[in-house]
Design goal:
The chain is α+β, with helices and mostly antiparallel strands. It is built from eleven helices and ten strands. The protein folds into three domains: about 45 residues; about 140 residues, Endonuclease Chain A (Endonuclease, Chain A), CATH 3.30.870.10; about 55 residues, Winged helix-like DNA-binding domain superfamily/Winged helix DNA-binding domain (Arc Repressor Mutant, subunit A, Orthogonal Bundle). It has an eight-stranded mixed β-sheet with strand order 3-9-8-7-4-5-6-10, with helices on both faces. Strands 1-2 form a two-stranded antiparallel sheet. The mean pLDDT is about 85.
């Protein structure tokens, strides 16, 4: 063959290991194996290797929850040491905000010029879970954001769970403050996809809280004012939507109920206030302090 003897020996050894050759009384001491046996052997070997790899992957997956918790704790420690951090990209920003929301202890302040681009279902679940833990929430929302039925339903649901929601004509940009310790502002108010600044500088956080409180003081309650005899729950939401001039079908879609249910609640409101039209019912609710004019 004109090949180095060591190379031939190594090749024959590999053929034997792969089950393609076996010892035999020949000049070289080897002979080719029956291909049927060789293939069965090769398949069985690959199956064993694959089973081992799958077992290793399964074992690795079992460690993922613990590793994720360790990462979260480590990330929080790192973040606590960074007074101002730039987080680039929408997904990275969402993940960091979620971590802060899950770690919140007392209060979350929020300014929204429009509904968050997070999937509404997951955002709603996270916010409701935070309220259920006893974390208070106050949200300022720009008035034109409420033209979206999905947004109105979202804010109505969190309000029913205990969050305070007020409306202003215009907000400068989105703002979040967690426990009066961390403020989150977008890098670009017109493009959330760019990311956000996470600020832990005491003076800057205090200024963000001051700005929020000034806007909060001038804002109007989104839903029914807490007054003696004022309706609550779904009836309160219906009254607010009536005041906004929404039709029965639109109200039903916003609240996730049937049109008949809406009309029944409206009839009950009219009866309670002794009125016979929607306009007079809304006017009577304002006079009683149930609605902010």
């Amino acid at each position: 063959m004109g090949t180095d003897g060591d190379q031939v020996d190594a090749a024959l050894q590999e053929l034997q290991e792969r089950g393609l050759a076996e010892p035999a009384p020949t000049l070289l001491g080897f002979a080719a194996t029956d291909p049927r046996s060789a293939i069965e052997y090769a398949v069985a070997t690959e199956q064993r290797d694959l089973a081992d790899r799958l077992a290793n992957l399964s074992a690795l997956r079992a460690h993922v929850p613990g590793l994720a918790q360790e990462y979260a704790r480590g990330r929080q420690r790192i973040d606590a040491e960074l007074p101002i951090e730039v987080v680039n990209g929408l997904e990275a920003t969402r993940s960091r905000i979620l971590m802060l929301e899950e770690a919140a202890r007392t209060e979350v302040l929020s300014v929204q010029e429009q509904l968050s681009p997070r999937p509404v279902v997951s955002a709603l679940q996270q916010d409701l879970a935070s309220l259920a833990r006893g974390v208070s929430g106050r949200t300022l929302v720009q008035r034109d954001a409420l033209a979206d039925e999905e947004a109105f339903h979202y804010f109505g649901t969190v309000a029913a769970a205990g969050e305070q929601v007020r409306v202003v004509d215009q907000v400068p940009a989105r703002l979040l403050v967690f426990d009066n310790e961390v403020a989150v502002v977008p890098l670009d108010a017109s493009d959330r996809a760019r990311g956000a600044l996470f600020v832990r500088v005491r003076t800057i956080v205090d200024m963000c809280v001051f700005l929020f409180e000034r806007m909060w003081a001038d804002a109007s309650p989104l839903f029914v004012v807490a007054a003696d005899g004022a309706p609550s729950g779904r009836t309160a939401r219906i009254l607010e939507l009536m005041a906004a001039g929404r039709k029965d079908e639109t109200i039903a879609r916003s609240l996730g109920v049937g049109v008949r249910t809406v009309r029944r609640d409206i009839a009950a409101l009219m009866a309670d206030l002794g009125e016979h039209s929607r306009a007079s019912t809304v006017a009577a609710a304002i006079r009683r302090g149930w609605l902010s004019p």
